[in-house]
Amino acid sequence: MLRRLAAQRILELRQAFRHPQASRSFSTALNYHLDSPDNNPDLPWEFYGKNKEKVKEILSHYPSNYKQSAVIPLLDLAQQQHGGWLSVSAMNHVAKIIDVPPIRVYEVATFYSMFNRTKVGKYHLLVCGTTPCMIRGSREIESALLSHLGVKRNEVTKDGLFSVGEMECMGSCVNAPMITVADYSSGSEGYTYNYYEDITPKRVVEIVEALRRGEKPPHGTQNANRINSGPEGGNTTLLGEPKPPPCRDLDAC
Ligand code: FES
């Protein structure tokens, strides 16, 4: 079954390369900047409240002549403070803190897909698009989400509650397919980034509706027949007490 699915996906990929116009759009949202009323360099932006202390703490991890090494944690903090995305003013502020030209910060923010360059919903749903999740049906998960929410990838629903993006492998391949729900609505203090694993198109819609109702659906595996990343139906190996290595007691050898 798995082999058949893999072969089908490989065929799809080959077709996409032969007919690029027919292929789906990949990964991240826009990587260029156009000034708009809510995203332009004239808008003031700075870290506030406890985040000012966090900035100092982050910078303390690096030698004072290598402040630029703090660019990723500072951008991450800025994104958490700014409702899940990085405005050009936020990036400029980070550049000022680490004393580099702004382009050095833009390069980082546009390279890593965890940084959002446009507004996201209260719940930003990230579908893993890498091979194990793709073979296990991540495209069907994404289609179910997009059609249920009535948006395209990286668009925000009209009520501002949801947006759907794509992320590459999030290290949960054994429980593929999986999505992450990022919730930036409570700033850096209440920010959450939860994995929902072993999902199906039906389950992912149920999760969305639970979030809409303000519930907190249990994260982790959604397969009731497995515990965490253990095999479905229970352990198949290491069922007894493991034997100690031979000759542990050198006098007895
Ligand atoms: S491929 Fe999806 S978590 Fe690794």
Notable features of this structure?
5-stranded mixed β-sheet; 9 helices; Arc Repressor Mutant, subunit A; alpha/beta; binds FE2/S2 (inorganic) cluster; 253 residues; Glutaredoxin
CATH architecture of the domain at 120-221: 3-Layer(aba) Sandwich
- Low-confidence regions: 16-24
- Helix fraction, binned, reads 25-40%
The hetero compounds bound to this protein are: FE2/S2 (inorganic) cluster
Which value, in Å, is the CA radius of gyration?
22 Å
What's the CATH H-level homologous superfamily of the domain at 120-221? Glutaredoxin
Total DSSP helices = 9
Which strand order does the major sheet show? 2-1-3-4-5
Distance between the termini: 49 Å
Q: Helix- and strand-based class?
A: alpha/beta
Q: What does the average pLDDT come to?
A: 88
The SSE order reads HHHHHEHHEEHEHE
| Residue share in β-strands | 5-15%
**Backbone shape:** globular
Number of strands: 5
In the CATH scheme, the class of the domain at 120-221 would be Alpha Beta
In CATH terms, what is the fold-level topology of the domain at 120-221?
Glutaredoxin
Region (Disordered): 212-253
Pfam families: 2Fe-2S_thioredx
Cofactor: [2Fe-2S] cluster
InterPro entries: NuoE-like, NuoE_dom, NuoE_N, Thioredoxin-like_sf
Report on the architecture of this protein.
The protein has 253 residues and is an alpha/beta fold. Among the domains are: 50-111, Arc Repressor Mutant, subunit A (Orthogonal Bundle), CATH 1.10.10; 120-221, Glutaredoxin (3-Layer(aba) Sandwich), CATH 3.40.30.10. The protein is 36% helix and 10% strand. The chain is built from 9 helices and 5 strands. Strands 2-1-3-4-5 form a 5-stranded mixed beta sheet, with helices on one face. The structure holds FE2/S2 (inorganic) cluster. FE2/S2 (inorganic) cluster is lined by residues 128, 130, 132-133, 169-173, 176, 178. Residues 128, 130, 132-133, 169-173, 176, 178 line the site of FE2/S2 (inorganic) cluster (FES).
